[in-house]
Hints:
A hairpin with a 5-residue loop joins strand 1 and strand 2 (68-71). The longest helix is centred in the last third of the chain and has 15 residues, at 101-115. The protein has 2 domains: 9-38, no CATH class; 59-115, no CATH class. The chain is of the alpha+beta class. It has a two-stranded antiparallel sheet with strand order 1-2. The chain is 24% helix and 7% strand. It has helices at 9-14, 32-38, 101-115; strands at residues 59-62, 68-71. This is Pertussis toxin liberation protein C.
Amino acid sequence: MPSFLDLALESGFFAQLPNNYEHRPRPAPITSLNFFSLNSFHNFMNGKANKNPWGEAVSMFQSTSGTPYFFNFHNSPKYENSFAKKYDGNTLVFGKTGAGKTTLVNFLLSQFFECA
């Protein structure tokens, strides 16, 4: 947490340099709550490649990080063999005019008919 430092200016400056940890004017231990606030511990979603209600993933897209994202119409548990189980399959596509909503839906339908 940043704070205004006016009484121990030299100590505050030199504490920023390597190997001067003991010169910190206001030592504050990092608690587990602070640690989780500082670190994100997240990654890009990757979907579920196989063992879906319809078998393999309907399609594979590329995420913004370049990793594969396996698209499915059903939301099934990630580490469970969900083949032939009945899960709700709801899909909603948002976008402005000309963004490619109809193209995306037609692509997903064509991929679906390849799986079926």
